[in-house]
């Protein structure tokens, strides 16, 4: 917990302007800063337990497993995945900030395998290109991966998807610092 507190403090001080006080100490003034996005990453070991008691829940952010620039996610995706053994479903809730717009989404994965070593689940084919998403929770390594598997690649618009893309879930969060002021009573459209 102390490491997380130290990390958050360090992140909050990144890029902040300092003003000299009369006694020579530095004062950080967040109001002088333009809000910027910061990502805290606590690593890929996100699973706690094996879920054999009936459920497992993980949260974090997806990162591409490839180091190729064109395979990277365009925007950060924060997710929470909850799996229920009784109904054989994993539900992923996610939020993406794309061009300053916060967009929530959810997806259901049908569980095909759940034992002491792994959980395997997949969603239905999606879109014109029939992209299936395969979710794997590996309990011994405590990691979660997601693979996009296109099955329809014979049309011009789907050819670019012929290669599978994989992502690994990292613990952590996306943070706007300093916080942007939000006034729910302000006139909309200003």
Please tell me how large the radius of gyration is. Answer: 21 Å
Overall outline: globular
What fold name goes in the CATH topology slot of the largest domain?
Porin
Q: What is the CA–CA distance across the termini? A: 41 Å
How many domains make up the coordinates? Answer: 2
Give the strand tally.
Answer: 11
Question: Which whole number gives the mean pLDDT?
Answer: 79
In terms of DSSP E residues, the strand content is over 45%
- How many helices? The count is 2
Order of helices and strands: HEEEEEEEEEEHE
Question: Architecture of the largest domain, CATH level 2?
Answer: Beta Barrel
Level of helix content? under 10%
- Structural class by helix and strand composition: mainly beta
CATH class of the largest domain: Mainly Beta
């Amino acid at each position: 917990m102390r490491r997380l507190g130290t990390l958050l403090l360090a992140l909050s001080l990144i890029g902040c302007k300092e003003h000299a006080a009369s006694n020579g100490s530095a004062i950080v003034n967040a109001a002088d800063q333009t809000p910027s996005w910061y990502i805290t990453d606590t690593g890929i070991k996100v699973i706690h337990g094996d879920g054999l008691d009936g459920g497992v829940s993980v949260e974090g952010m997806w990162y591409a497993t490839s180091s190729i620039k064109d395979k990277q996610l365009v925007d950060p995706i924060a997710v929470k995945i909850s799996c229920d053994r009784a109904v054989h479903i994993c539900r992923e809730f996610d939020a993406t900030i794309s061009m300053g717009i916060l967009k929530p989404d959810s997806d259901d994965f049908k569980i095909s395998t759940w034992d002491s070593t792994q959980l395997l689940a997949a969603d239905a084919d999606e879109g014109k290109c029939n992209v299936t998403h395969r979710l794997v929770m590996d309990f011994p390594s405590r990691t979660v991966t997601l693979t996009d598997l296109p099955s329809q690649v014979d049309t011009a618009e789907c050819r670019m998807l012929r290669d599978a893309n994989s992502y690994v879930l990292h613990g952590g969060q996306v943070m706007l610092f300093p916080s942007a002021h939000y006034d729910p009573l302000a006139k909309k459209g200003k």
